Amino acid sequence: MNRTNNKISWVHLTSKLRQLFVAVLSVVFGISMYIFMNSFMNGVNNAQTDITFTSMAHIKVYNDLNGESPILLPPPLSSDTIQFVSNAREISYTEGIRNADEIKNILLSNKNIVAVTEQVNQNVFFRNGVAKLNGTLSGIDVTNEPRLFGTNDYMVEGDLTELDKRPDAIVLGSGLAVRLSAYTGDNITLTTSDGVTKIFRITGIIETGTGSIDKSRAMISIQSARQLLSKNKSYATEVLANVRDYNDARKIADEVKGDIKYKTEPWQEGNAQLESANTLRDIIAVAVSLTILIVAGFGIYNIMNMTVNEKMKEIAILKAMGFDGKDIIQIFLTQSIIIGLIGGFTGLITGFIISAIVDRIPFHIASFTTLPISYIPLDYVMALVFGLIITFIAGYLPAKKASEVDPVAILRG
């Protein structure tokens, strides 16, 4: 009986190829758009994350001067007890981290931390001729900095390693270079907040894609920065670390903070908007994609419903011949499943082709040269599963209606 039911289903499908084509096309459209929307949104999220993490580490350790002061002494045992407490504000060394090497070793001892670097950041004035601007000067570890931020990938002119080769070398952000009307090979003057002035030679230009940073930041070697600010060889304003999965930064920061006396901050604390934006884009992509699939499901439902109405006499004859309601459901449900499978696999291929085409559209920002697309296998699996579920439901409802047909009433009518 099952073989007979399948043959009947196939005859129904092939008897009207135009309806079959329209039904399959609706599934293809729904699934291909699901694939493309999710691939594109995931690509945008990854691109946004990559651009953000070109200048922001997963975990940052710094001296939080505004943090809560620890309780140095327990409460007095009696009212006649005299306690002497020194004010933390009177300590001469109140800014930055003077034992950065020790902090680096603590961070590297955690197996989930993959890279660590240190920076010396200072607000300075940049001057080139009559142009004078304030901005941020970052003293970087030229060896470890690219391991965290892929800095070399964002160099549009020059070589980052020049910072280690000459003490007066400086790399400017692309926006800052434009504002100063400065070019590679030019000399610019830096003035610190303490009034120290030094001339640096521009050896490179960097463009991270984050406008606020590119317009205000320059980099020199960390040794030159310490010398400029008269700091010791282990001084840093920040120690930065990257973990294997940036989503685990909060948990890993909690693991190491007990051994570090400075503020240990995961990226989520100061950048919750990035996480929220990614989540919102994912919700929008899924909502739009599912809506397209549901609309495609309505198309299949309408076609199957029309088929049932057109085949009423045939259904009545089949029931009169001994086919029961389950057989009728199987006949029409098989048709919808075949439509779902053909449209599903065709939609996967079409969605991949659309994504591949969009992936080649020129789009220049930071280190990206084309529109961002992510190819995630789970998206393809979910698209096929959702497509089959919707086509199953769209086919079951008309099939259920067909199984309840009264053959006597139909044949008399």
Automatic annotation (TrEMBL):
Organism domain of life: Bacteria
Keywords: Cell membrane, Membrane, Transmembrane, Transmembrane helix
GO cellular component, one term: plasma membrane protein complex
InterPro entries cross-referenced by the UniProt entry: ABC3_permease_C, Lipoprotein-release_system, MacB_PCD
Single GO biological process annotation from the record: lipoprotein localization to outer membrane
Membrane disposition: Multi-pass membrane protein
Localization of this protein: Cell membrane
Pfam short name (any one): MacB_PCD
Statement: the UniProt record of this protein carries the keyword Membrane: yes
Transmembrane segments: 20-37, 283-304, 331-358, 378-397
Domain ABC3 transporter permease C-terminal: 287-405
Domain MacB-like periplasmic core, first and last residues per copy: 21-257
Family the UniProt entry places it in: Belongs to the ABC-4 integral membrane protein family. LolC/E subfamily.
Protein name, per record: ABC transporter permease
